[in-house]
Amino acid sequence: MEVTKICCIGAGYVGGPTMAVIAQKCPHIQVTVVDLNEQRIKDWNDPDTNNIPIYEPGLSEIVAEARGRNLFFSTEVEKAIDEAQVIFISVNTPTKTYGKGKGMAADLKYIELCARQIAKVAKENKIVVEKSTLPVRTAEAIKSILDNTGNGVQFQILSNPEFLAEGTAVTDLLNPDRILIGGDTTPEGEAAINALVDVYANWVSKDKILTTNVWSSELSKLTANAFLAQRISSINAMSELCEKTGADVSEVARAIGMDSRIGSKFLKASVGFGGSCFQKDILNLVYIAKSYGLNEVADYWEQVIIMNDHQKRRFSNKIVQTLYNTVADKKITFLGWAFKKDTNDTRESAAIYVADDLINEQAKISVYDPKVSRNKMLADLNYLESRSVEENNNAILAFDNPYDACKGSHAISILTEWDEFVAYDWQKIYDSMHKPAFLFDGRNILNAKELESIGFVYKGIGS
Ligand code: ADP
Questions:
Q1: Ligand 1 near 92 CB (within 6 A)
Q2: Residue 104: which domain range?
């Protein structure tokens, strides 16, 4: 089957960039991205592509090229489903905040709504592709809904997890390490797999396109994220030991990274990982393992999260302790709020938790982030429900300029590794601060010696 029309449900961090790249690389395929959120679609259709709702290097250029040609953003969900041969589901699957599996299991209500909508609308056979990260065996649930509520048409469900990293989504999509497609081993399943392989083969060489059964594909995504997060928690665990023993975690990371079996990537100690995926996927894994009675497996992976929570808390404790055990009414400036550089995504960002701890200690937080608005910062804090909206409102000040944010502060802490932070005039910042001027580098991006020679009391992670 030759695919000529694709629909993607969900215009978020996964759906938006992925579909933009498919549209750019496959001009013969019409790609329509739909979302219930009208404002989001309006923003994707902003005449100035610099204003699209998701910031990723290179993305606005691709949208400028393809939008209106074969890439469309719309709220007409049913029309797009009806017309497409292939439907990607890229809706959000947050951790459940209620009921059974609360705080652990994935909330599949958006997925189920999508499946029911597809079943209602589809009048011809469709290929439905799971793009969101999902617990193992979700495809089975989707299939059951489609087969039992549909109009008697045939559905093939494929799992095609997204491996892009935020901040480098466009280059990851253009040059993926691999594309993974899971499907049924029946002839119809194989035909569906091949149809999707042919879409990617427009720009990805076939030896990088892996095909597996649905469950292997679903579990591979969770496993990849669990391994990646585990490396960060492992090096972060060593960072605490380094601080006690006089070793330097950057030196340790370099030394072990040169072992080709270990490799050098993802060994940077920090204030802790964030993002919508790592924690959620590991919690999912833990939940699934527990539900099969595999308690040792569950405990093993849960420790990655426990270590990460500890690392965030340790960072805020260190700030309080260093500032003579009180930060009450002190101005603490955060450079960075996003969970990593080159994205405006703040979900599960370490900054949120560190801010929450410091606000409990009655600190006043000033924030500068090149891509995050104050509204988003407040929404992130309010989501924790630690205190009233008004109290959060009074505790957070946001600035458009880093120098104003730092002026008059008792301490600065770096929460995101934005490149621009390194290039600042640190002497000027030092001159504008209370003394002693403390600098807590939660990302180890600044040069400790240079800052100390200016006069800062510099505290990195793991040294
Ligand atoms: P991700 O990082 O997984 O892409 P996002 O939250 O950025 O997650 O994006 C998911 C998008 O899916 C949101 O914009 C949300 O409005 C949209 N969405 C959720 N459910 C539906 C639905 N049933 N139909 C259309 N869009 C939906």
A1: yes
A2: 5-212
State how many domains the chain has: 2
Q: What is the ipTM of this complex?
A: 0.95
173 and 221, same structural domain? no
Q: Are residues 191 and 231 in the same domain?
A: no
Q: Is 254 annotated as a binding residue?
A: no
Whether residue 328 is found in the same domain as residue 453: yes
The reply to whether 73 sits in an annotated binding site is no
What is the identity of the amino acid at 1? M
- Atom index in ligand 1 nearest the CA of residue 133 equals 3
**C-alpha closest to that of 455 among 322, 443, 432, 444:** 432
Query: Best substitution site from 35, 38, 75, 107 to test ligand 1's pocket, by max atoms within 8 Å of Cβ?
Result: 35
Does residue 416 contact residue 336 with C-beta atoms inside 8 Å? yes
Tell whether omega for the bond before 436 is within 30 degrees of 0, i.e. cis.
yes
CATH of the domain at 87: 3.40.50.720
Does 134 contact ligand 1 (Cβ within 6 A)?
no
Question: Which residues belong to the active site?
Answer: 277
pLDDT digits (tens, 9 = 90+) for 188-228: 999 999 999 999 999 999 999 999 999 999 999 999 999 99
Ligand 1 binding pocket includes 11 (Cβ within 6 Å): yes
**Residues 306 and 206 reside in one and the same domain:** no
If asked whether residues 261 and 347 sit together in one domain, one would say yes
